[in-house]
Design a protein that fits this description.
This is Cadherin-12. It is found in: Cell membrane. With 718 residues, the protein is mainly beta. Among the domains are: 13-73, Immunoglobulin-like (Sandwich), CATH 2.60.40.60; 83-184, Sandwich (Immunoglobulin-like), CATH 2.60.40; 197-300, Immunoglobulin-like (Sandwich), CATH 2.60.40.60; 307-404, Cadherins (Immunoglobulin-like); 412-524, Cadherins (Immunoglobulin-like). Helix content is 9%, strand content 31%. The longest helix is centred in the C-terminal third of the chain and has 31 residues, at 538-568. It starts with 12 loop residues before the first strand and ends in a 7-residue tail after the last helix. The model is unreliable at 529-534, 571-579, 607-618, 621-626 and 714-718 (pLDDT under 50).
């Protein structure tokens, strides 16, 4: 309620309200100043409201007093139950824990006002889960209530927790949650074998390292607490076997460590111990965490292949041993009760195995070919033994045969030496150190000896000094050498070995005389250097030779160009061979001009030219000579010319244009007489020159001349 001192109760004062919730949550009576709540309030939603009130004049609307602020606080009631915001809970505790072992702490939240009354005071209790667990009413801490809870008996527990406000009094509100508690495993149980004796049957042919059986000890624990380690207790038969743990099944896998043999021993007995790997010291007083069982293994008899007496055979034989010589033997036996016979044969893999043979019954190995240590020093092959009663059962063994060396090769100089001696060498100077090599397999301590051959011992040029360590030195025996007198010396050196029989060889060394300086450094060993001037280097000699080659090339090119130019003067154009006549006003050379035509052939038509090429044109392709028919005796000049004209017309090798040809043919009647009609046997009147008009324009003038003479003949009757 609001009231102003200026309010006289006559209705002249008006009250106004503003602030949080004014008009929505709270309202005021303008006349009396009473404040009322117009809806339900929730402290958990808004615990207090801040409002402002003022008294104003009804008529003037002016404030009568300054505005005042006041707070309306919502008083709490117990209308909210406790809630477990993190529930449901999951917890674990080790098994066999003592009473009061901490498990988990739960917490419930009450939205009521903790400062007003007991509305927010919560008390915890267990509704389900007793007598295994207990809870602190104030803190909510859950602890174990029973000792030695065993996981192997019961592993999971579900506990129902209640939280109640009002201090747990009657009428208080309550909330619940669930706590799932799991007992974790501890190693509180030792492994135990379900039975004291395990029987196994193993074939004697089982391979070493193979698994021959499994045994298992039971441990009710879980995880690493159930991990078991198996060990064979030392004793009878245990040294042939081994045991390991299968990590997935925790079984003991028994493996074979050594081969079994039924004929040797038929049964084995040993003990196996199973123990935990991870022990808990709190439970040592319970007893030893291990157990022992007996394993009996019976070996089964199997049909086995023959067994060789050795895992590998090594033999030796001298090279060039005669074919058929026995060099050794292999032995295999059938150890089964039946004791079958054994047959031997070589495992053929390549051609090398054919060098030896083996006796199928006795197993003796003999040579089948001549052996050469230098070609193959060692042979490695396999021999197979099979049982006669069961040929499928076989065994194999490796045989190594070393070929021993026989001294059959003489020693030789190991490498070819390029030995040189200076012209200014002094006597006793070592110019080369030589070593020897032998193709034979030299035994330890073998030595080579060096000496001059007898034919060279009396020559005063060089000598051989044996150092007796398989090397020798070539020494000079004279003062100075001359290349002009002798450039090369050939020194025969005899080398012997120390094996039996002694082998020796004569090796010829070539010694070249060279020009050296005063310090013995070689300057030149070439023969040409003797005749060159002193001081002329190799580079200068190469330069001189290069200049000579260049000059020769220039001369050859010049001669070739001259020849080409001379050929080109025959014709001004290589493309058109008709341009061979350059000056049309030049007179011919007559019978002396034999460059274009063979005048002899024209003078004597009977001469047949073999493969005669025309010389008035440039030949392009090879043409066969025309076969000219022989001119008959007393042939007229007209027939001769017509014949030549026809030959040129049908000749495929003749050019298809006009070409000048001269036929100085006077006939067969006279060799050097004139063609004129003077002194002719016939008279002029008997001559008929009309045929000259048929010869064409070239004979027009001659035809006119004889025609005029005929027209002026006084004796002729027209």
């Amino acid at each position: 309620k609001l009231h102003s001192d200026l309010d006289k109760g006559v209705g002249t004062v008006k009250y106004t309200l503003s602030g949080d919730g004014a008009g929505t949550v709270f309202t005021i009576d303008e006349t009396t100043g009473d404040i009322h709540a117009i809806r339900s309030l929730d402290r958990e939603e808004k615990p207090f409201y801040t409002l402002r009130a003022q008294a104003v004049d009804v008529d003037t609307k002016k404030p009568l007093e300054p505005e005042s602020e006041f707070i309306i606080k919502v008083q709490d009631i117990n209308d909210n139950e406790p809630k477990f915001l993190d529930g449901p809970y999951v917890a674990s505790v080790p098994e066999m824990s003592p009473v009061g072992a901490y498990v988990l702490q739960v917490k419930a939240t009450d939205a009521d006002d903790p400062t007003y009354g007991n509305s927010a005071r919560v008390v915890y209790s267990i509704l389900q889960g007793q007598p295994y667990f207990s809870i602190d009413p104030k803190t909510g801490v859950i602890r174990t209530a029973l000792p030695n809870m065993d996981r192997e008996v019961k592993e999971q527990y579900q506990v129902l927790i209640q939280a109640k406000d009002m201090g747990g009094q009657l009428g208080g509100l309550a909330g619940t949650t669930t706590v799932n508690i799991t007992l974790t495993d501890v190693n509180d149980n030792p492994p135990r074998f379900p039975k004291s004796i395990f029987h196994l049957k193993v074939p004697e042919t089982s391979h070493v390292g193979s698994a021959i059986g499994r045994i298992r000890a039971v441990d009710p624990d879980f995880g690493k607490n159930a991990e078991i380690e198996y060990n064979i207790v030392p004793g009878d038969g245990g040294n042939l076997f081994d045991i390991a743990t299968d990590e997935n099944t925790q079984e003991g896998v028994i493996k074979l460590k050594k081969p079994l043999d039924f004929e040797t021993k038929k049964a084995y007995t040993f003990k196996v111990e199973a123990s935990n790997l991870h022990l808990d010291h709190r439970f040592h007083s319970v007893g030893p965490f291990k157990d022992t069982a007996t394993v009996k293994i019976n070996v089964l008899d199997m049909d086995e292949p023959p067994v060789f007496s050795k895992p590998m055979y090594t033999m030796e034989v001298y090279e060039d041993t005669p074919v058929g010589t026995i060099i050794g033997a292999v032995t295999a036996q059938d150890l089964d009760a039946g004791s079958s016979s054994v047959r031997y044969f070589i495992d053929w893999k390549n051609d090398v195995d054919s060098y030896f043979t083996i006796d199928a019954a006795e197993g003796t190995i003999a040579t089948n070919e001549l052996l050469d240590r230098e070609s193959t020093p060692q042979y490695n092959f396999s021999i197979i033994a099979s049982k006669v009663s069961n040929p499928l059962l076989t065994s194999k063994v490796n045989v190594i045969i070393n070929v021993l060396d026989v001294n059959e090769f003489p020693p030789e100089i190991s490498v070819p030496y390029e030995t040189s001696v200076c012209e200014n060498a002094k006597p006793g100077q070592v110019i080369q150190t030589v070593t020897a090599a032998d193709k034979d397999l030299s035994p330890a301590g073998q030595r080579f000896s060096f000496r001059l051959s007898p034919e060279a011992s009396n020559k005063p040029n060089f000598t051989v000094h044996d150092y007796r360590n398989n090397t020798a030195g070539i020494e000079t025996r004279r003062n100075g050498y001359s290349r002009r007198e002798q450039e090369l010396y050939f020194l025969p050196v005899v080398i012997e070995d120390s094996s039996y029989p002694v082998q020796s060889s004569t090796n010829t060394m070539t010694i070249r005389v060279c020009r050296c300086d005063s310090d013995g450094t070689i300057l030149s060993c070439n023969v040409e250097a003797i005749f060159l001037p002193v001081g002329l280097s190799t580079g200068a000699l190469i330069a001189i030779l290069l200049c000579i080659v260049i000059l020769l090339v220039i001369v050859v090119l010049y001669v070739a160009l001259r020849r080409q130019k001379k050929k080109d003067t025959l014709m001004t154009s290589k493309e058109d061979i008709r341009d061979n006549v350059i000056h049309y006003d030049d007179e011919g050379g007559g019978e002396e001009d034999t460059q274009a035509f063979d005048i002899g052939a024209l003078r004597n038509p009977k001469v047949i030219e073999d493969n005669k090429i025309r010389r008035d044109i440039k030949p392009e392709t090879l043409r066969f000579p025309r076969q000219r028919p022989p001119v008959e005796d007393n042939t007229d000049i007209r027939d001769f010319i017509n014949q030549r004209l026809q030959e040129n017309d049908v000749d495929p090798s003749a050019p298809p244009y006009d070409s000048l040809a001269t036929y100085a043919y006077e006939g067969n009647g006279s060799v050097a007489e004139s063609l004129s009609s003077i002194d002719s046997l016939t008279t002029e009147a008997d001559q008929d020159y009309d045929y000259l008009s048929d010869w064409g324009p070239r004979f027009k003038i001659l035809a006119d001349m004889f025609g005029e003479e005929e027209s002026y003949n006084p004796d002729k009757v027209t």
